[in-house]
Amino acid sequence: MPSDRLQTQLQSQLTELDGEGRRKGAERVIEAVLPATGSRGPRVVIGGREFVRMNSNSYLGLSQHPRLIEAEHEAAVRYGVGPGAVRFISGTLAPHAQLEQRLASFHGREAAMLFSSAYAAVLSTLVPLMTDQTAVVSDALNHNCVINALRLARPRSKAVYAHLDLQGLDRALTDLRGAERAVVVTDGIFSMRGAHAPLAEIAHLVAGHDQYFPHNALLVVDDSHGVGAFGLSGRGTEEFTGTHADLLIGTLGKAFGVNGGYVVGPQTLIDFLRETAPMYIFSNPITPPEACAALAALGLLESDWGLERLAGLRHLTERFRGGLRDLGLETLDGAHPVVPLFLRNTQRTRQTVARLYEAGILATGLTFPVVPRGDESIRFQVNADQTEGDIDTVLGALAAVPA
Fold this sequence. Notes:
A seven-stranded mixed beta sheet has the order 4-10-9-8-7-5-6, sandwiched between helices. A four-stranded mixed beta sheet has the order 1-2-3-12. It has a three-stranded antiparallel beta sheet with strand order 11-14-13, covered by helices on one side. It has helices at 4-20, 66-79, 87-91, 94-106, 118-129, 144-153, 166-175, 199-209, 236-241, 267-276, 278-281, 288-301, 304-326, 346-358, 388-399, and strands spanning 32-34, 43-46, 49-53, 111-115, 134-139, 157-161, 181-187, 217-222, 247-251, 261-265, 338-342, 361-362, 364-366, 377-381. It is globular and about 60 Å long. It has two domains: 25-54 and 304-399, Aspartate Aminotransferase, domain 1; 66-301, Type I PLP-dependent aspartate aminotransferase-like (Major domain) (Aspartate Aminotransferase, domain 2, 3-Layer(aba) Sandwich). It is α/β, with parallel strands linked by helices.
């Protein structure tokens, strides 16, 4: 069947994205990952050139760790490279059950549930919780997966409060009384800026409204960027703020260096999600080798090595953030390894990213309309397998960029 007219229409949309500066374009292909040597950390190879990778979610640098590679290899030999079925048919293998038990214990919860990705975990957690008698309230800077979950869920009512505006959250919950249940959802770490949600204050506020909703007011936190990279022992924004959400969503694909997502919470809520979460019921889980690699990552994180690794990550993050300030550049306070550099201008942001690329540094620019005019920035992500020399190399390249 011909598709010429459709292709013409789609091409016009691609051209529009180009004109607005929103088209991502061709992807850069990493051809190799070179291990750390001496005073420099790992490098990735693109087009035969080596780059410092300052835009990776692998905050602990575990994806190349020998223990994870060995665990994944041994599991592939024992179980094969794929699960072969969805969980409830015959796709639950011992590593899946073991990993869920470890994740529940790691977060101090009764139960855990694995998904193929954190995006799938968010959609498949939020949508089943929403009924036509549910009110949902969301932070304005929540991740796209939260936004799409609320579009799919069709709750009775929903409200979006200004970023970290707790008075706005309080007003929204007051206005939405009359629903059977309320769900407040927030990112733990907001991925564009590295800022964390004040979970203690949010949890206290939600608890104050709980009595007005017959099915409770629940707090759901997506801490995909926080777990493994934030808090003294890597337990994320909950640890940093001393608070537990009703449901916590995390990922294995960032700090843990593997793949997949998960949710932890009370046994009954997890049991309900196993029966209702569409991307759990109808999609294959992560592979047994991936689950074993994630178990190895958890073992490392919970060891003395993990505490040292986290301390080193905090040190590198502080060095980079302090170096930006020493250069007279604008950033945000914080302890998370996402470090934004605000340039407040689309052209300057693009030019700086291009200059960094010329200098052998990968960085991600965020420009209008992805962010509002005046919020244009570069999102740097510090990884624990980098070195002080790597950080100084990046700072030196920024110092050489014309103001």
